[in-house]
Design brief:
The chain is of the alpha+beta class. The chain has one domain (6-119): Aminopeptidase. Helix content is 28%, strand content 26%. The protein has helices at residues 15-24, 32-39, 84-99, 115-119, and strands at 6-9, 42-50, 53-62, 67-75, 105-108. The chain has a five-stranded mixed β-sheet with strand order 1-2-3-4-5. Helix 1 packs across helix 2 (32-39). The chain starts with 5 loop residues before the first strand and ends in a 19-residue tail after the last helix.
């Protein structure tokens, strides 16, 4: 993130911006009620501002001790290509490395080709030893 007009704050994104960025980046769109409850589970977050506008988000959620998930990495398409995804990950990984206990397990579900970004921060594919699985409540 080399641009002087951007700033990253270690804060949970505002609800409206969270929902907007998920929608415009093609992530699952949650109800306002579900998103509001989900944001309460944020352990650490990175919110990128361009002026006063939120243009990027990322969160760390988990049980607080053993298992964590980096999720909701989203950058407004207008602002992609400026290193914002990498800056979000760097902020979250700074929290991980300085606050989580030894042997904590941090996961991420990587949409391709974003796996290349996450590999820069030490994440490795788990296959063939294990695979990620998911269930979406209908």
């Amino acid at each position: 993130m080399d641009q002087p007009n951007y700033r990253i704050e270690p804060q949970t994104p505002p609800l409206g911006d969270f929902l907007r960025l998920r929608k415009i980046t093609g992530l699952t769109v949650y109800s306002e009620e579900a998103a509001q409850e989900g944001l309460k589970g944020t352990i650490a977050a990175a919110t990128v501002y361009y002026g006063e506008q939120v243009v990027g988000i990322g969160r760390l959620v988990g049980d607080g001790g053993c298992v964590f998930v980096i999720c909701d990495i989203a950058v407004d398409p207008v602002h992609q290509g400026n290193g914002l995804g990498k800056a979000i990950m760097a902020s979250l990984m700074d929290y991980v490395q300085n606050n989580l206990k030894s042997k904590a397990y941090v996961m991420i579900i990587a949409d391709l080709p974003a796996n290349k970004l996450y590999e820069q921060f030490g994440f490795e594919a788990t296959a063939p030893d294990s695979i990620g699985m998911a269930y979406r409540v209908p």
